[in-house]
Every structure is written in structure tokens, then in C-alpha cells.
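User: Assemble these into one structure.

Assistant: Restating your components, then the assembled model:
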Amino acid sequence: MDFTLLFERYPFFREAATAFVVIFVDICALVILIAAGRERRRGDRRWAKEGRGYMLACAGELYPLGAAEVLIGRHPSADIQFPDTEISRFHALLTLSDGKWRIEDIGAHNGVLVNGRKITKPCTLHLNDSITIGSRRLVVIKGDGKDVA
Amino acid sequence: MAQRQQLRQRPPIPALDVSAPRSMRRAGKWTALFLTAFIIGLIYLGWRLISQSAFYMAKSGQATYGKVTDRTGDVLFDGTQPLNNYEWGHFADVGNLIGDTSGQMSNTVVARNLSDLVNYSFTYGSGADAAVLETTLLHRANRAVYDAYGTKNGTTIAYNWKTGEVYVCVSRPCVDIAQGYAHIAEMAEGSLLCKAFCPTVPGSTQKVSTLLAAYQSAGVDTVNGQQFTCSGSWTNPNGDVIKCHQDYGHGTQDLAAAFANSCNPYFAQLVQSGIVPLSDIITSYTRMGYAVNGEKAEPLNLNGIVIQPASTTLTDKDQFETEWGALGQGKTLVSPFQLMLWQGAIANGTGTAVKPYLLSSKTTADHKQISLASHLHTDQLFTPAAAKAVQEVMTKNAAEHYYVSLGNYTCGVKSGTAQVSDDGRKYENSLLVGYCLDESCPVAFCILIEERESWDITTAQIAKVLLDSLTGSI
Amino acid sequence: MAKSSKPLSHPFLFLLVLLAHSAMMLLVACSFGITPEVLKMACAVLTADFVGSIILAIVNREACTVDTVLLLVIGMSTIYQSCFGGLSFAVKHFVFGIAAFVMCQISYAVTRNPYRAERLKPLWYGMFFALVAAIFFLTGSRGIWIDLGPITIQPSEFVKPVFVLICASSVRTQLHKSEIAGIHFVPDNLMLIFCTIVIAALQWWCRDLGSLPTFVAIAGCGILLRFCYLREKISVRLMVFLGACAVMAVVFAWKLAPEYVQARLHSDIWADMSGSGYQQVKALTAIAEGGWFGKGAGNGTLIHVAASRTDIVFSTICEEWGLFTGMMTVVLVLFLPGSILTVPPRSYYHSGLAVGVAAAFIVQMALNIFGSCNVIPFTGVTIPFISQGGSSMLASGILAGFLKAAQAPVLTEKTAPKKEGR
């Protein structure tokens, strides 16, 4: 059957065919959206692996390390915020690279102590390391990633 | 070792939280904000494109157009077939009101509502059925009034002061849209515009406005009891002479008599005497919609048709020009449409007129019927007390002086003679404004006959034709 | 990483893209008959889908939303561009589409490591000033094009991705403050403001104010994010203040704009339908004629109007394929910046990149679509991946690569921590 003629004679067929194609592409878009949702879970898994599941625990509170750069300080824009006066506004920065978490002092008045020792350069963190910031003691723990993986 | 033991004793391992911190989520928040704004914009755009698509088609010049009908379904314009298919002269009475799609006339029903008349819908495209615009006009009555003019030129406009429907709007000379524009140079001057919408010298019909101003300023009883003497002419303090149409004068008369006599010296003295301060007249005129002394006034609108507002010059009560202006001569200009509108506000006795409208409904190309009837009112043009008092004077005037020509209708009227000078040529136009209070024909009207001579048809006779043709049909 | 992802999703997505393109090609074949041109086009588009998906499946399987959408959109736009006003395979558009896809992968590879991408900032500044110099010296008298014989390059398009790279910043950079005469400042922020002024001045100079809003939006987002990092929390009052400032700036620019811009801002297209309003009037009429499902591929007449493939391409698509398809295509392109809503960036630099790209894409699309439809003043900007134009296509590809990088970062840093310290 010659569709070219059919389309010319009966515009309805052409419109119906266009509608069909559009709906098909729409379905495709919908699936991409669903896939994007799946991508999110994959991203979470990737992060769980990349960040080794590390979190910080302090006096019963848990602080997730959800980004490659985590700012600790008194300032409201800090990712981990403590209102203590002995903690500087921007106290310490945790960074993730090569699968290792490092902590560095970013100009804190009272310094940053890792396992009781004051650090002068970026220091790699290990599981169960204790970080002392002002009067706070944070412990590096590993979360249970079963829900994520 | 002890440390390890401590570790083992530690309560269950907490679940891993992999959510990004607040600082990272900001990126998502901002993006979501942009996306939302854009999508809202897109939805608005879609709505706008669809709702304005008929307008785009009309502007593109590629569209075909539907029909305009009167209130009974009689066709007044037809874009679906050659107009020659109708009987000869079918469109000749309302051609310059309804107009056509030729682009020769811009202030017409068709030209101003082109996008409502396009045979197009977004869903059905250009192959859609004909759109129909139904007007409030009664073609029969328009034809009767048009024919009544005979060889004279002029305009008549009438509307229902209760509902706002415009029944008649005739302007002679008129273009016959079925004949086309091949002989446009030979057409009589004024064929292409509806004079009902063009400001003209109102003549003594202006005395209605002046009277309204006087009533509002000095009170009804004061003005009614005011007496002035007319000896055929009156000289103002500056030495200028205002003549009366009655050479021998009307003698000493009160307002009702002066109104009925349309006595110029009486009204000139009313303005000059200071009983009614000039500032009050200006305020009153401005409220009625006049552009006084070059001030701006809002143009009026009738379903897209633009009507220039009335204008006058009132500067000094002792000056001839001011007195002359308050009498409706000189620089005073009012459109018949606006004169009719004020009559509407007098007829209902409230001082607020129902806004006239011409289009009652439209049937779109995809068969949707949409009502266009408006039920809007104007602002308060004058006080109800003034409206009622003027109504009394006008009704009395009609009952006493127009009983013969207007027959049994309960009317109120005011006549006027406008002295027009056009390119050095001087002539007189005859006007009649008024209303009918009868339930069968509640209309307000303005009738204008240009260059009327004493043997020609009178405005009152046209009013009779108008009322006769409307009664029983509306 | 690949192992942990569900294995079916990736090929399934590309199969869907292939099917969507096949459906569109079928429609084209029905409209034009099975001609050699149609076959050529079908071969090109479908092969590109196939090869692209296989290569991606082998090489990397990260952030596949961006890749899928990119393949889908590039194929669709090739089909649209080939059918405008009659069938003729838009080879150039297709080739640049593929090139954009490749550029996306390259820019992803370059920027996927946020630490390295930021360390390379001096390079970005160098590129920025090189491009600015190119616009200043190489384009013809105050123009925006460099004529190289067979091809012309629009360097201002390439400034966009470089500018996005400049605008993004990490928190560490923000903590690095200098002091001159007792005034503390962040050198990076100063540099951003300087670059913004340079690019704005340059746009003004070469009378290409159409892309100025895009740059202003990118810079605005850069500044806003920096503001968020290290200042107080954005309060409602501050937001209102910033909004008021932005409105003031717009009003100020509006008043100060040169005459030709003023003319555009205040023009009524319906009053000058054959003059300055010609393109928009034709564009709007075309959309009205197209209706919901268009006049059919190849049946459009808007192609005879200038810029029908670029500035008013939305209307050209709407005329032939219908408003529904046009809107859907626009929404598909929006999936690209929208993809970062699903996978959030994990570093400050990447979040800056993502917001910059979103701003660039959305502002450009808004200027193009709303401008051509007479909602806002008409400017000559392109819709990413849909409009014809090599420079714009490649630049958009690079920008899409940034989005991919933000979703699948690689966090390795061998040298930086030692250098940084305190």
C-alpha cells in the first residue's frame, strides 16, 4: 500500500501516525525517567563503595559523609555543624580521594586532633579513628550498607 | 585487644546513610527551580499559542472567514461565499458598521473581531466549519431607518437602555460591501466610516449636558425656578452677541420653557450668571466623559470598535467661546454613540448607563458557542437626582411638543441644530436625542440628519420609524 | 561498579532509542516513500544509535541517562532537520551531532575528577582569554563568526563551557583567602567577577547581546553557589533582596541598552509584520497552521524564512510535526539538566558545573522558544542539540559531558593534599 498517497489524501491517517510516533517517543521518555530513578540507586551504591561506608559518630549522633568534601564547623553553612564556641566557624575539612578519607585543619584556632595527636597536614582516616574538635570527639565508624548495595 | 572487645560489644552497626549533604543538594534545588520556572513558562506558552492561534491565522492573511448575523440570523457579512449571491443591496445599510475583510475599513465589527471570525481551530485546523458572530442588531429595523433617510445623509444609533443591546446603527452614505471597492474614488464622502462613532457638533442637544451640570451644582429647584429674559439675542460682558433662533426672542421664561424652546440666550445667561460655577460644569462634563480643555479622556469601546470621547473648551464664563461651547456649538464635539449613552443613563434614572454591546455570541469553528453578551455598567456619569430631573424635563418636552410626530410612545427627547462649518462651507445638522420608556421598546437613541432643510424628513419622523420597526421585534 | 548495576537496563534503554528513531523513520518513509535519501538517513541514524550504544556499553556504563537522552535527541533533531520543507538528509547536522556526542565523552573524561578539573583552572582561564582574544581579533568587524573558508566558527559558543568551568568552585578554593591592604578576598571570586565583566563587555562590543543572558545566568549561579557555601544560610529576606537586585539590574540594563536592543524590546511584531516582526509572525502562524500534530514531515513552508533551522526552529518543528511533538522535544532536552535531580553531585566543583550547565541550557532554550513566540524579546540564540549550527552543537555536547561527570565522579588525587595543607 502506498502510504504517501494515503497521507496526502487523508490527513487524518498522517495525524494518527504522527500521534502514534509521538506517543511511542513519549513512552521512551518515560522509560528514560524510570531508568534515571534506577540510576539514582546505582549512584548511591557507587557512593557507598567509593566512600567505604564511613560515617562519623559523636555522642550518639551519626553524621553521614555524603560528599567528597565535608566541612565541619560552627558556621550554619557547614555540612557538620556544632554550635560550640571553641569550634571555629570553618574548622576542618574532610575530603575523599583514592578511596581514602582525609581530614585537614582549615585554620581552626584550637586545631584538630586525630587519635589525640594534633595534625599539621592532611591526615588519612581509618576506621575507629577518633577526631577531636574542640570538646567534641568524633569516631569514624562504618555504616551497614545492606540497604544500599 | 581491649579496644577490639569494646568494638564487638558495640550495639548494632548503624545503617549507612548515603544521602548527599545539604550543600550538595543545593545544586539540585537550583536546577529544580529553573526547570519548574521553565516548565511553567512552557505551559503558559502552550496555552497562549492555542488561545491566540486564531488571531495568528487572521493576521497571516491566509485564513478564510465565517459569517456575521443579526439577532434573527439574517446574514450581515459572509466570508464563506461571494456576497453577490445575496440580493442586491442586502448589505448596503450596515456596510460601514459591519465592514469586511478587505482591509479598507479598520473600525468595524469584522475588522476589530477578525480572530473570532476565522474558520480555524487549533484542533481542526483551517478545514474547520464557518465561525459565526451573532450581533444584537435587528437588520429589518436598520433597513427601515436607512430607507427613511431618503436622499439625506446622517446617522441613527439606538440601544436597549435596560440590557445594552445595540439594535440599530445606521450611517448614510454607506458602502455596499457586496459591490467591492473598484470605484472607491467615486464613493460619496463618509461612506467608509460609521458616523455614529465620529464626534460631531451636538448643537442644542448639549443643553442636556449643561442642564445635568446645573442640576448637580445648584440643585434642581434652584435651577428650575431660574428665570432669564431672551430678546432674540443676548450680549455678554465682553460684548459678544449670542443669537436665538427665534428672532423676536422668547421673553422671560423659566427653565422648562427655555429647554423646550431650546433658547440659547437663556442657557448662555445660566452659564454666565455664576449660578452654576464654571468649575462645576467642567467637573460634571469630565465625569460624563468629556475631554475638557485638551485634557485626555478615555476612548469608548464597543466590541473593539473605538469611539473618540467627547471634547469641549470651557475657559472663562464671560467669554463667548465658553458660552457657545456649553450650548453645543463651536469647539464642542460629541459622537452620537456617546449622546445615546447619556440618554440611557437618563432613561433608567440612575445616572449610570448599561454599557452598549454589539456582539451577543460567537460560534467557533469547532462548534463551541460562547456568549459575548456583557452586562457592564458605566461609571456614575451624573447623580440619580439630576438624571430624574432631566428625565422629567425631557419627557415633558416630548409630551408637549412631539405628541404628533412620535405618536403614543412615552418618550423623552431633546432636539438640536448644529452649525457646522466644513472647509469654509457652512450648513446645519439636525439632531434628536432621547429615549422611549415603553416596556415594548426601551431604547435610547440619537438621530442625526446632515444638512437638513425645512422640507426634508425630520429627526422625529425617523425616531417614529425607529420605534415602530423595533416595537414587537425585540 | 558495573557488576552491581542491573545488567538489563542499559542495552534496553538504547534499544528503546533505536525503536523510537525507527518509528520516526517509518513515518518519514510513509510520507516520502522509500527513497534512497530516506534509506541513507535511516542507515545513518540507526547505525549511530547502534554503534554508540555498543561503544558506551563496552567503554563506560556510567550516567547512562545523559547518553541515552543525547542519542535520542540528536537522532530526533537530525530527522527534523532533514525533513524541513522537503527531504534532504542533513549530513552536516548529523555529523556535528555525532561529534557533540564524542565531545560529551571527552569532556566527561576530562572533568569527571573534580579535583583535577579544578586544578586545571589556570588552563580554563587561559582558554577563556584565548577565546575572548579570538572573538576580539579574529572575527570580522565586531561580528561573532570566524570565517575559515569551508567552515565558520562561533567562538562565543565555546566560551560557554569554559565559562561554566570557571564559575564552578570548590569549598577549598573558597577558603583560600588573600589579603591586600587589609582587605581579605578570595582570588577565585575576584577572577570570576573579572571574567564576567570581560565577557559582558565583549558581548556588548560585538553586538551579540542575545547570549549575554546565558552568561549572566551562568555567572549568577556560580556566585550564588559560592554565596551558599561560605556565607550565612540564604534567608527569605536575603532572597528577596537578591531578587530585587536582579530586577533592578534588569531594569537598569533595559534602560541603558543600545538603540537596536531598545527597538527589539519595544517592538510590536503585529505593527511591522513585514519588517522587524516578520520572522516571529511567520513562526507563530506556522505553529497555528501546524496544530496538534503538524502538517506532516516535509510539508512546512517556514523553511523559506531566515533562521528557520536555528532561531525559530521550535516553530519549524511545530509546523511539520505539531505542537505536541515540539513541546515533547523541548522536554526531552530538559531531561539533560534534569538528570542531576536523580543523581546528586558529590563534590562542590561538580555541583557548580551542574548548576552552570542547567542555567546555560534552560536560559538558552527559554530565550529561543519564548523569544520566537513573542513572549519575550526575540534574540538569536539556539536550542541545544536541536538548532542547526556546529559550534553550538559541540559546545552543548561539552556541557552535557559536565552533567555526566557530576553524576559519575572519579575521586582520585595523588598530589593535591600534600600541596594544600594549611
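Residues 1-5, 416-422 of chain C have pLDDT under 50 and may be disordered.
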